[in-house]
Request: fold
Amino acid sequence: MVDLKALRLKNITLAKKLVRESVSPDLFIINAVNNVEDLQRVQNSLGKRLREWYSLYFPELDKRISNNEEYISHLLKGDKAALLKEFNVSDGMGADLKGPELDEIKELATSIRSLYDEERRLVGYLEKTMKEYCPNTAAVAGGLIGAKLLRGAGSLKKLAMMRSSTIQLIGAEKALFRHIRTGARPPKYGYLLQHLLVQKAGKDTRGKIARALADKIFIAARIDYFKGEFKGDELLKEVEVKLENENRKTQ
Amino acid sequence: MVDLKALRLKNITLAKKLVRESVSPDLFIINAVNNVEDLQRVQNSLGKRLREWYSLYFPELDKRISNNEEYISHLLKGDKAALLKEFNVSDGMGADLKGPELDEIKELATSIRSLYDEERRLVGYLEKTMKEYCPNTAAVAGGLIGAKLLRGAGSLKKLAMMRSSTIQLIGAEKALFRHIRTGARPPKYGYLLQHLLVQKAGKDTRGKIARALADKIFIAARIDYFKGEFKGDELLKEVEVKLENENRKTQ
Reply:
């Protein structure tokens, strides 16, 4: 007779082992990207609160500095008289706050600043991991964008199996479904819009550059998945040349 | 002829002065309460991410500890073997993570922990400020709940002008309007539900205790606004006695 209990235990042990081994770099990368985006969301919402609060004291600063990190570093310098001079405000509308109030505001600012540091660290980790795990994709798309594409696909394997037209639109799902549902204009790029080369392209050629990039990422992801040789720089170079040609045409 | 330019300048100076002086403790309190709530929201969303991430390594811990801060302090202790033993897990399903991955997770955990510290500081500040600004309200409602009531009203002045039935429902606006719109059951308490005495009351008497509290807060806010003598402890005592009587009745 088969010992069912022993068999069951063996099965469970095996299943646990499989679960344990199913954790791949894909998951780290996806988690890290999610965290980066969450940190950014949190920085923005706490930053808004900070501005609201500090504006009781120094309302003029809010409009002068739109970047949150810069705002925080000015705030933490702390000498209002010097700041008023620096921003050329002769007759400030802010109230005179007492020490304890200002201390609270500064504590909050310090907390937010540490979230920015944490984000930078995490992006650094992400770029390092991407370079190790999929060097070609990272070289063409960049670490952060590559990681977002990977998350959109679900894993490197799935990304490597995608068509380039699909890669081009990862991150534009909402616009794509709006297009399908309502016939609105189809999107030309998703996360790739954040890519430096797409940013550098003129408005009319952005779609083309995004497509060229997607074509190369398509190749890069396959090389990475099948552990081929590093060709990332070459692939990126080709897109750069294309961008130059396009720019020359439009001039 | 009137010198219009000089008049205009004078007007602007006066207006700026008025703006400057319009900043009252009400605004600090409202800002601080908003910040506390934002910090809590942020802690929760980052905490969820952290759990997701750390669960790759140690999935069993997630279900065992529901409190985020406790989870973080266990995570930062860091010795998985000891933790497995502590929680009596013989055959963990978590993957073996390398140093860099674990470091990232710990960094995130440390960031979140500092947000908890920041929240505690801010609540401390809030309670101190409330005690100075409206000692009676703070004594009856408690610092944090009192601050939320004050925010709901808009200022201490407005809170002092409210009827106690309105005070009772601050924080329950959604339920109140649902009641008005659809005829659903009216709410019995808003922020006051968080009050220790309401928590201590049985389900059937909570409404009564909330009303009694609102009655006393109504008096307390008026004493605070008109700078009367401190009677907060007495007022709170009366509600405590009422709670005891109610509890005796139901036994």
Q: What stands out?
A: The domain at 25-133 of chain B is CATH 1.10.287.4070 (Helix Hairpins). Chain B has two domains: 25-133, 135-246.
